[in-house]
Structures are given as C-alpha cells and as structure tokens.
Amino acid sequence: MPEFLEYDPFTGLRTDFSFNEESGDATIHYTSDLQAVVDHTRALANDGATDGGIKRGWWLYAKIPPVVQLQMRAKGINIHDRDSTNRMIAEINANYPHLKCTQKVDQGKKLIQVHDLGAKS
To answer: How does pLDDT run across 100-121, given as a tens digit for each residue?
Structure first.
C-alpha cells in the first residue's frame, strides 16, 4: 500500500511513495483527478471559445496537467522543447484529445508557443 507524501491543491497532483522490502525497490506514484480539467476543455472546445485567436497568432490548443506532462516526458516528449512540438501535438491528438480546447486539429504548420501556467517560481 503506497504511503501518502503530499497533495498540491494548485495542480491537483498527489504524490505517494511505496517501498518493496523484498526487492528493495522504491517507487514514487503521481496521480491526479483530471475530471475538472476535462470538463473545462470540453466546454471550451464545444463553444469554439479559443478558436478566435488562430488568425491573431495565439490559440489555446490544449491544457496539459502536470501528470500528463510527466507521462509525455516518460515518452521522451518535453513540452518546453521546441524540437518536441510536433511530437507533442501528435501525442495530444492521438492519446489526449480530451485535453484539447478546440475541435480543430493543429498540423504543426506554425510555431506553437507553450505557456506553463502551472509553474511555480
């Protein structure tokens, strides 16, 4: 049974720790309830609320919670690395479409800027 370490109410990220005495393996588990994010992104996508910025050079394509950032990082996708942008968009379209704030699909033709609104300084 994992032992609770911390909960970050800002990001919704819960951290647990487990240790297997037989193997000596220690594991840190990150979990998050994404339902509020999914409900928000679905509402934005259904309303087309973020699509107006496409021609003006800004567009909220998706909201990527910290736990999903960690999952992408495990696949070698760093959302803050411009060289990973096309892989990030492809990953969102293929595996995280519920995090998209639009019904449209970005084809990677323009430079996408990633803004991490959840970063702590």
So the answer is: 888 877 665 544 555 555 544 4
**How many of the other CB atoms lie within 10 Å of CB of 84?**
18
The per-residue pLDDT for range 43-79, each reduced to its tens digit, is 988 888 777 766 666 678 889 988 899 899 999 999 9
Alpha carbon 42 to chain centroid distance? 14
What is the spatial distance between Cα 95 and Cα 50, in angstroms, rounded to a whole number?
Answer: 21
CA–CA distance, 81 with 104 (Å, rounded to integer): 23
CB-based contacts of 81: which residues, under 8 Å, 6+ apart?
A: none
DSSP for the chain reads: -PEEEEEETTTTEEEEEEEETTTTEEEEEEEE--HHHHHHHHHHHHHTTTGGGTTTT----B---HHHHHHHHHTT--TT-GGGHHHHHHHHHHH-GGGBSSSS---S-SPPPP--TT---
Q: Which of 2, 21, 24, 5 is nearest to 13 (CA)?
A: 5
